[in-house]
## 1
Amino acid sequence: MEKVIIIGAGGHGRVVIDSALCNPNLEVIGFLDDMNTENILGVPRLGKISDIEKFKEFKFHIAIGDNSFRKELSEKVKIENLITIIHPTAYICSDIKMGKGCFIGANVVINSKSRLGNSIIVNTSSIVEHDCILENYSHLSYRVLLGSGVTIKEEVYIDMGEVVKRGLIIERDIR
């Protein structure tokens, strides 16, 4: 069983904590956040985000929606110390490739030969069709639909409900 500390406890952080608690292979030790929230779903606050150094012996998941800040923190804790969290209702084809520290939300579908970089967020009910590429630190909000062969460049955010047609390369946020 992997022991993990969640970094971030805002709206996205609460969703990630809930998903992590559904995973029998993870033990959520606590979370780090700068808010004064003491407890989320029975998981205790261990300190502020700046306290990361005190917990070097643990693995981390960075539950922060801001792509640049997530990238900064990922580099600080080192990619190899990140854990991917996948909600049990997600469907992920067996031939995809996924980096470290990703979050795959409830009812997500990721189809054949898609590739996900490090610290990607694919939120609730999004669909990533076959042969898509999501580069490091990109973020699909909820109910995003990527047609087949779409490429999402590094640190790009796609807002809720967006439909991205087949074969496009997305280099800037879609809001």
## 2
Amino acid sequence: MTSAIFPRRFFRPVLFCLVLPLLAALLPALVLAQQSPAPSGLPIPRFVSLRSGEVNIRTGPGVRYPIDWVFLRKDMPVEIVAEFDTWRRIRDAEGTEGWVHQSLLSGKRTIVFTAPLASLRREPRESAPLVAKAEPGVIGELQECRPAWCRVKAAGLTGWVQPIEVWGVYPDEWMR
């Protein structure tokens, strides 16, 4: 209907004049978005662990934000889900989220057993002999991971566990 009032050749220059300034305005933001990784330069999300036995979890990224939780387990695995400057938004195995300063986190990879009685095996296969059974809440050090099995050290024992029995590793994650 508008083509009866305005000739077709009118729309191309008008469209060009409207779109060009919009693209020019968005281009710097698009370039910055591609060049600005997370402050740490590391992937998000990722698993880390708590460096201290007492870690304040805040409602926002800074000391002026109130403390919402206090985590009391050193080496507990947490997942970094966001970053802001030197602050990391973390989530624990139960889904509790909050902000902590990066100095309270360690790159050491740990897991927490979540299955009712997880089987720690001598080799990475279900028919391998049992090393131990682990109760929920036991924390172990993650040593190696393949898609179906992870080697962990917990309570002085080393063995293989299936990732579905622990929290702190992604499905099909490879780690050496």
## 3
Amino acid sequence: MATKRVPPTPISADATIADMIETLDKPVEYVRRVLEKLERCKRAHGDAQVRVGVRGRAEAPNYLIEYVREDAKTRERTTDQDAAYSGSTHRELAPHHIKAAANWSPEEMNITAVSALIGRLRNPRAPSSQANNED
């Protein structure tokens, strides 16, 4: 008996993890593992942010961890790549994956935003940080 192949879910070119929550196989586990990598980067470099891969599977997209540095004299900010990871295994990918800019969304999420996202996933009934307008 032949099985039907399900076409892959397309990933928006400017997606973030928050945009993809509905398509992730295991959203809490995925975001938790990304957050671990972000925390490691922050300990090493003082900053951390993540971009998702836009060419892979929306159910477990690869991701790129970066950090921003600011030159003390010129105040010029530069973004440096830390490492890229497989979305399904969370293992580090080969360095050539990082260099292909077309692989990555131009939109990033910082470590604070990812921490807030996992909090909402783990406790969806908690009041949001935005004030409710009640009459």
## 4
Amino acid sequence: MTISLDKIENRTITDKIIDFFLKCPLIDDKSPISADYIGDEIGTYSVDGSPSETILKSYIDGSTERQLIFDFTSRESVEAYNNEKNISFYEKLAEWVEMKNNEGILPELNYPLKAKEIKVLTHGYVEQMSANKAIYVIQMKLVYEKRAE
């Protein structure tokens, strides 16, 4: 089956991952989620691609199993009370992602791509800290199939 390029939605895999996280009840719907950019304001989020091998398996029909390793990041306050809150947020976020994966509720990718699994690779941790703000990161992996056309 051949599909013309004008029929394919122009949204990226990262856009679809952002859509997935916008459905998470832990994330304030007024807080923006960007792609590869974290704002200076506390309570902003980003989905950032991470270097990795893309193709995991190639099949005889031309389809492939692929992965996208990404970081979900946020800028948070780092005062004593907030540190516990930040750690709790990332633990709960990991649980939410695992639950959605187990339920088969995955990012909805555009044809010819189909999500197979979303997996948490690391716990949430501080990547960068200033006087009163920190960037927290949790690394994840989206495994998806690219169907042969």
